[in-house]
Description:
Low-confidence stretches: 46-74
Strand content: under 5%
Distance between the termini: 10 Å
Radius of gyration: 21 Å
Number of helices: 9
Shape: globular
Oligomer: single chain
Number of strands: 0
Amino acid sequence: MIVRLLLAALAAGLIAGMAMTPAQYLKTIPLIMQAEAYENGEVPHSHGETENAVAAPAAEAYGHSHGAESHTDDSMLGFGRFWDTVLANLVAGAGFALMLAAAALLTGIGFPEGREGVTRGLLLGAAAWFCVQLAPSMSLPPAVPGFPYADLGDRQGWWMITVAASAVGLWCIAMRPEWLVKVVGVVLIVAPHVWGSPVPEDLSSEVPAYLASAYAAASLATTLFFWLLLGGLLGSFLSRVPEEQTA
């Protein structure tokens, strides 16, 4: 039974992780490359008054300076940007799938065979996206290279607290019938944002604000695709495990 659950979760995670790579190369990685061009001073300063005047040199620098992926040599794992991305997505997909399956089993969420199991998986994926991506992004949005950052440790600590609080709060709202518990859930979700996320000391940046906002939106869109695909696949695969075994 454990082997079947693990295989179902790993299969869902690996498929979702592999599908995430083309989505990132379509939406987010071009924006990262443009931001890197600004960060490295490869884009001349524009004195135009419109966004198009800034976007033109950015696109030109992106096309000329990243044809051979200028940051490939700086890749974290040494395999180049593309293969680092693929490997990171596979590992992240497998890990998130195992965590999502564990959360489903611990909270008693079952996956009946057929469409209902897939639907429950999609709802679970949407809930995970809210906790892991959307809720933290309300106060600490995804940022491109060269944009102002607060201390890494402070950001990681606040992010983990926000994810945990959002998960518990969402569980209180969705899984508990008592109104008082639901109110506590709302308070838990809102509390980290009332407390406030870490703020960088220096807010100056060479990266245009429109590029950072476009990246934040694209990042949320691609991660929504990832979590929905992961949840749907997980619901489909786990629905094939007999219910008496998961119980």
